[in-house]
Amino acid sequence: MGMTSRDRVAMALAHREPDYVPLDLGGSAVTGMHVSSVYLLRQALALDPPGTPVKVAEPYQMLGEIDDRLQAALGVDVVPLGRRKNMFGFENKDWKPWQLWDGTPVLVPGDFNTIPEPDGDLLMYPGGDRSAPPSGRMPKNGFYFDTIIRQDPIDDERLNPEDNLEEFAPIDDDELQWLASEADRLYRETDKAILANFGGTAFGDIALVPAPFLKHPKGIRDVAEWYMSTVSRFDYVYRVFERQCEIGIENLKRIHEAVGDRVSVVFITGTDFGQQHGPFISPNAYRTLYKPFHQRVNSWVHEHTSWKTFIHSCGSVVAFLDDFIEA
Q1: What is residue 151's three-state secondary structure?
Q2: What pLDDT sits at residue 54?
Q3: How far is CA 2 from CA 64, 192, 264, in A?
Q4: Is the backbone of residue 197 left (phi > 0), alpha (psi -120 to 50) or beta?
Q5: Average pLDDT, the chain
Q6: Is residue 156 a contact partner of residue 229, using CB atoms and an 8 Å limit?
Q7: For the segment 196-239, what is each residue's pLDDT rounded down to a tens digit?
Q8: Secondary structure (3-state) at 34
Q9: CA–CA–CA angle 133, 117, 91 (5° rounding)
Q10: How far apart are CA 204 and CA 270, in angstroms?
Q11: Separation CA 262–CA 181 (nearest Å)
Q12: Pair 292, 326: CB distance under 8 Å
């Protein structure tokens, strides 16, 4: 009997040579493919009749679902396990037909409630609630959504770290039960490695700071203001991260009790530290503001579970590699 995908990934992550290099496509929001490309790939592989729609698995970036037939055709070794709600705060269910600007036929969740604006742009609403201010915009002829910044005036005398912690709440029992059920299903029905993204441990991930999933986000939500605040309001941001870390680890404890060691890898952070030709921040800034919390989360995972940890960063991060390893 040949090696299973789950074993293959485990061997690679243990620094032992498997039968071949394992492949991940669609295991996370940072290892996916745009739905238009997924559609064309499926057509090229003759998996579907022309015009067969592809599900949009992640509507913020408009990533396409990598289903079991495409996984088999490509030899994919990883399957995703995420939270029930997506980046816009609604569940991927009640699928309905939709069409991209380029004509690609897709299926989108029922709460994907958007129609063209007079200028042709598409607006997306948190939780699918069109009575709330829009939180995302896809330009006419665009391919994905950009976050709409919703920033109230900032009064430094009244800044409260709790305002930037609204989205980092203790996980509820229903969500735990759902994660346990999904982990069990994926473990029993596939031989793939499960890459889980439980959320809550990405400190300062700029895709999450504006909170496109919240209807009325408070605190510091403007992208430029947030980055400046990591220096000018260092103590405030540090306090946000401290509490986020406490909540995140408590959630991981409960999640591990629910899903056990069925998970192979857990997504820890997608915060970006690099730009095109080098670091986005100084290595010292990483060591001071981010590394302490990465160490706390990673240490808990390694000490209490069999999970391996996964981090993502855009850009050139060579200057941080030693610190990433230490963390």
Answers
A1: coil
A2: 99
A3: 29, 13, 19
A4: beta
A5: 97
A6: no
A7: 999 999 999 999 999 999 999 999 999 999 999 999 999 999 99
A8: strand
A9: 50
A10: 9
A11: 11
A12: no
| Residue spans of beta strands (DSSP E) within the chain | 54-58, 63-64, 78-82, 96-99, 105-108, 122-124, 136-138, 146-147, 193-197, 265-269, 308-311
Contacts of 40 (CB under 8 A, 6+ apart): none
pLDDT at 2: 81
Tokens of 137: 């915009």
Q: DSSP assignment of 104-150, as one string?
A: -EEEE-TT----B-TTS-EEE-GGG-TTSPP-EEE-TT-SSPEEPP-
User: Could you give the residue range(s) of every CATH 3.20.20.210 domain in the chain?
Assistant: 152-327
- For the sheet containing 96-99, what is the strand order? 63-64, 54-58, 105-108, 96-99
1 pLDDT band, cuts 50/70/90, is low
Q: Which single residue is written with the structure tokens 């406490």?
A: 246
Structure tokens at 174: 């229903």
What is the Cα–Cα distance from 58 to 92, expressed in whole angstroms?
Answer: 8
Identify the DSSP state of 21.
-
Task: Name the CATH topology of 152-327.
Answer: TIM Barrel (3.20.20)
What single string gives the DSSP state of each residue in 76-87? --EEEEE-SB-T
Q: Which of 291, 242, 246, 239 is nearest to 269 (CA)?
A: 291
Q: Give the relative orientation of helices 291-304 and 234-259 as an angle to the nearest 10 degrees.
A: 10
Residue 154, token pair as written in the block: 């900032």
For residue 65 the two structure tokens come to 């679902």
- DSSP state string for 158-180: G--GGGGGTT-PPPPHHHHHHHH
Residue with structure tokens 């890898």? 265
DSSP state of 62: T
What does DSSP say about strands 78-82 and 193-197: parallel, antiparallel, or unpaired? Answer: parallel
**Collapsed DSSP state (helix, strand, coil) of residue 326:** helix
